[in-house]
Each structure stands twice: as structure tokens, then as C-alpha cells.
Design goal:
It contains 7 helices and 6 strands, in the order αααββαααββββα. By secondary structure, it is mainly α. The longest helix has 35 residues. The N terminus is likely disordered.
Length: 284
Amino acid sequence: MEHAEQMHHGTAKGSAPKPPAERDALQPRPAYRWYLAAGAVAAATAFVGLRLYPDLPPSLPTHWNGAGQADSFAAKSVWSVFSVPLGSAGLVLFMLGLAVFLPRMTAAGGQLRTADSPAAQAANLRATQFFLGGTTLALSLLLAWFTLRGWLLPPDGSALYFILPLLALIAVMAGLGLLARRRYRSDAAGSGASDPALPSLPGADPTASSDDMPASDPVDDPRNYRAGIIYVNRADPRVLVPKRLGVGLSVNAGHPGGLAFYLGLAVLSLAAVVAGIAAPLLGH
């Protein structure tokens, strides 16, 4: 049994180690260019702060309400000016560390589909690495915007200064998700791995479309998704299901518990936005 396990991991005596190219293909590295770009954004923001520091006002806004009006201030200091760029740099390092250890964490936690081939699992991880890197850059740009806003714009501005960047972030995240999904399908097809949306079953017609082919797991069936991302399957008794793309779990909106989760999240999000905008207006 021990010998078989060693053979499975390719470490038994006489088994040749995998070439570096093959190891890299099966254990994708982080998308370093995204993190370099995100780090450059944080560094550029700090550089602008150094140039502006002597001319900044003695009191700087640190928080804005939902109406776009500053409601909290801090005296100008090295910390109040550079805390956000430093936090942005810390975020980049944290996300990079997460990306570095992602293959090990997913293997140890069993969060990838064991039914998938190693090539399909590697394609999954590559797509996830792409999404993590792009998300890091998008968040660093958002933090840079809020920092520059506090330095350069009047403290009492428009709520659009807050709403539009957040909407842009949501749009970018959605675009990154779609691009990651496309990269995954392309990688899986290029490596000869089966596409989860087109599972290979005994006796199945290889020319059939995904609408004609049953999935081995309902999570793999594209017909069980709304807008391509929300899993909705009333026949599935699970509340949490493996993600179709990426690692971790998704919520089944077709289950009463999953539906309650999404409704509660929507209500809380809407209440937070309404309260943030209405509170300062009612105060006047």
C-alpha cells in the first residue's frame, strides 16, 4: 500500500522526477505581472504623496458618508498620508502569498475536483491565478483613487466619487471572471482535458453540444446557472457545492437555505447603501 502511494506521487525508487516544464504546467505559478503592476500603483501613489506632502492641508479627510461628504478627519502626519498606500502594498504582498501557496492549499484541502484530470485541474488553477492577480490590480487602483481623492479633491464632493469607482470595480471583477472562465476552457481544450461543461461519459456523442449531454455532477451542467455564475438547482439537496471554476465552494440558490443567503445579502447591501446616503441628508 505504501509502495503504491509512493508510485502515485511519483517518488518511488526508479520513477523519474517530472521535468520542470511539466511540474510548472501541473502546478501553475502566480501571474506575477499583475502583482508587479499592482505594486507599481501603490509605489506611484506613495511617490505622489511625497511630492504633495508639503502642500497638503493640516487636516485630511479619512472617511466619507454615502452622500459623498467627509465626516471624519485626521491631522496631517506621515501615517495619515501614507497609511493607505502602505495598506495597498500589504494587500499586494498578501495576495501574492496567497497565490504562491494556492496550489498546495488546494491539494491539501481537496478543493479541486478529484474526477478531473491533472491537466484540467492545472487549467483550473491557472484561471484562478489569473483572476487573483487581476483582482489585486483592480483593488490597488481603487485604493489609489480613494487616496488621491482625499489629497486633491474638496472634502465635500459628490456621492458619484464613491459609487462610480465601486461600479467600475464590480464590472472589472465580472470581466475578469468571464476571461478566467474563457482561459480555463481554452487551456482545458488545448491540453486535451475534458471541459466540465462537456463531460465525457461512456457512449456519449463527442460532437454533441452541452445542452444535449448530461453532466456527471449537476454543478458541471451549464443549464443550472443563471447569468453563468449563480448555481440554481432545486433538485440538488446541497446548500454548498464545489465551484464550477476556481477553488472553494458556491451557494446553491435553488436550495431554500441558499436562496435565503442571497436574499439576506441583497437586503443588507441595499440597506447599507440607503442608510449611508439617507443618514446625512436627514441630519440636515
